[in-house]
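Re-running Pyridine nucleotide-disulfide oxidoreductase dimerization region to confirm reproducibility after the cluster update. Everything else is unchanged from the original entry.
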Amino acid sequence: MKQDLIIIGGGVGGLVTASVAGQLGVKTVLIDAGANLGGDCLHYGCVPSKTLIRSAEVAALTRRAGEFGLQAELGPVDLGAVMDRVRQVIDQIQVHDDPDRFRGYGVDVRFGHARFLDRDTVSVDGERLQARRFVIATGSAPAVPPVPGLAEAGFHTNETIFQLRTLPRRLAVMGGGPIGIELAQAFSRLGSQVTVVEMAAQILPRDDAEQAAELRSVLDAEGITVHTATTVERVEQSEGITRLACRNGESHWTVTADALLLAAGRKPNLDLGLEAAGVAYGPRGIRVDRRQRSSVRHIYAVGDCCGPYPFTHMAEYQAGIVIANALFRIPKKVDYRVVPWVTYTAPELATVGLTEDEARARNLKVEVLRFPFREVDRALAEGETAGQAKLIVRRGRLVGASVLGPHAGELIHEAVLAIQARLRVGTLAAAIHAYPTLAQVFRRAVNTRYTEQLYSDRTRKLVAFLQRWLPGR
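Result of re-run:
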């Protein structure tokens, strides 16, 4: 029997699509190559990393107890106990992705490796399944660069690091992107001596350079060693010790560690026999149009397997585009003008829209507004004053924002809405912000735009004139 829809991949993109399709009565098969639904985000990414980061944050706060007028002492960290909590949180969330829940929606959930036999047929463990439409949502996996000795030396990725039971005394991290930097700080706060090696000139290369530099200063102050513009030329391992031969220009040195975390990017999962279906793809993934259709129009793709943004919320957004097109036949197209992302370090770094460098590169005439958290009363009360809000303004409207500070991932959505709705920045300043809140940083940043004008000689003369010549009542 030919299905209406076959979804390959049980991560967020596949699950959102399957949930809607099943509840609408569409004959749907959901196939996942793993043992459980939920995808990378639940099992190896967002959920375990943020849970680990929270434990590390508690450890760091305990060490700072004296700053808050308290006495507390942190004993040796039992990484096994920390990882047990990570597992517990995953198990709690796994309930929402129970296969029986989706079967209750009418979705035929299967586990196995799917491969296309032709543009209308896939094989799963030897069984042939046909459908009118397909959605590929297979996600991505850690990329392994061709560094001599790396494979032989062995390493952890985000798929294995949460299985550790003993805290490594020295941890080397290859890659200064979000995964590398988040886990580097977490393990440092739990007690590891951490060294990060990044090829690019800055950590978090996709983020605002000024904000990334400030975050690096915070990491430096916490005792994390960060090498940027540095390549790993060779990796060796002997007697349980890993050595990374590093190079920066003419300088050479060796990083010695007890464990190595590889966080050098991602690669799309495309072992699906796409050639048999005629689906075009490249190193960055399946090529899709703005309606998420592949080169074969009844085969769609969402999430990391097609890009362009490797975020869970992007897979969810793209799934909505597919639902509109494949199920309702509404020709909805993606709009990537306003895409936020967050690196969950302490302080967090959240970004949306254009960075200052991107705006300058486009020869756009922009204003840059800044306001530091050290001048925000709530930040002072919480003892979290590092960072700033940085707003990019063009023709009176917000076109980009980055927030480095406490709870930046929550705060950034005020900027997301302002850019999405094309609001004038004066609207942000005019909105009443509760006191004392961290969100006041946006209003204070925008107000810096008007300070010079407000207190100019011209304004002072106008006020003097009004006070002298207009009646008081």
